[in-house]
């Protein structure tokens, strides 16, 4: 306990307490990528009527991004784009984006945050949704962010439900996950 903070209320904390907390948080940062890999593994149990489980879908999405020459940050974000489904399917884009936000660029964060509406162009019409929902984001994204989100949705995400696609395993991406989640940008 000597290495732990001593306060019982934050308004009674000291700089020394926060130095201890900061050091412990930094020392334990390696748990983050391992937790991400664990959450991704959990997606193998979620099919929800699709032709592939959600882990396979995420692996295929990342593999397509990789094959297109995307950098490691984009490939890892593609891998993690549906990680929120381990918690809540309706809220999954916001969950995935929030998990990624401290570790990726604003452009990558925005790509994941809006991916559902961008992908909706390919299926929203089937249940009365607006297939042009991506257009609602045009004013809140830069042109580059809009283009990246469209590429993600159109070229990688919506095409990745193929049980016959040559899909790498999670270990193929594990070192990149560890690299991207090695340290939050605010630390």
Classified in CATH, the superfamily is: Hypothetical protein af1432
Please give the share of residues in helix. Answer: 40-55%
Number of beta strands = 0
Strand content range:
under 5%
The structural domain count equals 1
CATH topology: Hypothetical protein af1432
Largest sheet: none
N-to-C SSE string, H for helix and E for strand: HHHHHHHHH
- N- to C-terminal distance: 24 Å
Tell me, what's the shape? Answer: globular
Text of the CATH class: Mainly Alpha
Q: In terms of per-residue confidence, which ranges show pLDDT below 50 for 5 or more consecutive residues?
A: none
Radius of gyration, taken over Cα atoms and rounded to an integer in Å: 19 Å
* Number of helical regions: 9
The SS-based structural class is: mainly alpha
Mean pLDDT: 95
The appropriate CATH architecture is Orthogonal Bundle
């Amino acid at each position: 306990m000597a290495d732990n903070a001593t306060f019982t209320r934050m308004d009674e904390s000291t700089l020394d307490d926060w130095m201890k907390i900061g050091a412990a948080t930094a020392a334990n940062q390696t748990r983050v990528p391992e937790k991400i890999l664990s959450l991704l593994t959990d997606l193998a149990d979620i099919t929800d009527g699709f032709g592939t489980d959600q882990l396979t879908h995420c692996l295929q999405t990342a593999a397509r991004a990789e094959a297109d020459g995307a950098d490691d940050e984009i490939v890892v974000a593609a891998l993690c784009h549906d990680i929120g489904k381990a918690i809540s399917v309706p809220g999954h884009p916001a969950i995935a984006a929030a998990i990624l936000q401290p570790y990726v660029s604003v452009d990558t964060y925005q790509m994941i945050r809006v991916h559902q509406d961008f992908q909706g162009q390919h299926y929203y019409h089937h249940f009365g949704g607006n297939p042009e929902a991506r257009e609602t984001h045009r004013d809140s994204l830069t042109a580059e962010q809009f283009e990246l989100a469209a590429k993600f949705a159109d070229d990688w995400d919506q095409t990745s439900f193929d049980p016959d696609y040559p899909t790498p395993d999670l270990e193929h991406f594990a070192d990149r996950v560890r690299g991207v989640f090695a340290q939050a940008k605010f630390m």
